[in-house]
Amino acid sequence: EPEVTQTPSHQVTQMGQEVILRCVPISNHLYFYWYRQILGQKVEFLVSFYNNEISEKSEIFDDQFSVERPDGSNFTLKIRSTKLEDSAMYFCASSEYFLNTEAFFGQGTRLTVV
Amino acid sequence: RKEVEQDPGPFNVPEGATVAFNCTYSNSASQSFFWYRQDCRKEPKLLMSVYSSGNEDGRFTAQLNRASQYISLLIRDSKLSDSATYLCVVNERISSGSARQLTFGSGTQLTVLP
Predict the structure, then answer these.
(1) Taking CA atoms, what residue in A is nearest to B85?
(2) What are the chain A neighbours of B88 within 8 Å (beta carbons)?
(3) B7-56 residue pLDDT tens
C-alpha cells in the first residue's frame, strides 16, 4: 500500500539552527501539507502546497518557515532559525484531490530544539 | 475563528461496550468530514469519511447533520485494539480561493478495558 514517508524520524537541534524535514508524498497525489502537533495538543495546520506553490498557510507558518518541492518526489519543510517552541511532531500529508478527499499522513518527524 | 469541538473525554469502557463520540464544527462552509484515529505518538490515520446519509464500516458508524453542524461516531462491540484518540476532522475552504485545509478537533481519548 502506498504511503507517505518522512525523514528523519527524530531530529534534535540547537536553538537558532536551521532544520530541513523531508517527506516523500504518495506518488500520484497532487496536494501536499505540513501539520504539527505539540506534545499533548491538537494537530495544527501549517501549510498546503499545490502546483509548486503555497495554496494556504496558517498564522504559525511565519517567515521562519518555508516549503519546497525540489524534485518530483520530495517535499521539504525548512525552519530557518529554530526556537524552543518549535519542538513538536511534524507530519507531512498528501491527498489526490483537494475537494472531498482524505489526506494520508506520514509517520512524523519529532523535532526537539534544545 | 473556525473551530472543531469534541467531547473532552477520556472514555474508559469495558470490552464489548458501545461508545459514541460527538463533534461540532463552526464553519458552515465545510464540505467534507472525517474521523481519524491516532495512537500514542503516532500519525493520524483515516478511520472513515462521513457522509450526510450516514455510513457504516463494520462496527463503526458515522453520522453527519449539516443543519446542526454535528458529526458523530459510534463504535459497537468495542475491542481492546480500539483504544486510541479519535480525531474529528473537517475539510474546509478557509479563503475565497480554492485552498482548503484539514482542521482537527483536539481528540477524544478512548480506553477499552479488559
Answers:
(1) A42
(2) none
(3) 878 999 999 999 999 999 998 878 789 999 999 989 999 999 998 888 99
